[in-house]
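Holo prediction — benzoic acid.
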Amino acid sequence: MVLLGDVFPNFTANTTEGEIDFHDWLGESWGILFSHPSDFTPVCTTELSKVITLLPEFKKRNVKTIGLSCDSVSSHMAWCKDIKSYAGCLEDEKFPYPIIEDKDRNIAMKLGMLDKDELDTAGMPLTARAVFIVDSNKKFRLSLLYPATTGRNFDEILRVIDSLQLTDKAKVATPANWKMGDDCMVLPTVPEDQIGKMFPQGITVVPLPSGKNYLRKTPCPKI
Ligand code: BEZ
């Protein structure tokens, strides 16, 4: 099992854009890999079209997107027409990101994406709705695992990428329901005597019944 902070496992795969080596395909970008139970399914269709409409936001953050579904490339190609139509694309527009073929479930198995409770018509386990975020050093930074019946919120995935990219650069953590621009928390590891130097914009210590000064807020650092 791959753990957060590990190098994300590399693999080769057939995709709607030809064969790829996952690490080569990532290049110097961040990446999100999101899996789907199967082609021509309603929730998946809404998710893949949502990714099309959010592509400018992913690009702004230097993030490449790639889907995976346990069907063949030829099935994916036919399905892409429905996804584009649902996203409001023109018929002759190229599908803007690759979808991995995983009809024998080898990649899903390797990456721990299978859901034993979700079976296809042949009784084979389908892939769950996994989301893996990989950074520009190929490190595995986040995973989300949803059951087939619950579509993902891709705005949340963008929000998480904002938090990961910000907290890589500044000694802060992002609180509940944080959005880019909101106040952040000073990391507990930052000692009191470093605050002035590290946070010239100032901090606010929130008083708490314990009397411990650990809840320290600071305006969102500019990165
Ligand atoms: C869907 O994408 O709609 C779906 C796929 C598999 C099981 C349930 C829903």
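READOUT: The chain is about 30% helix and 25% strand.
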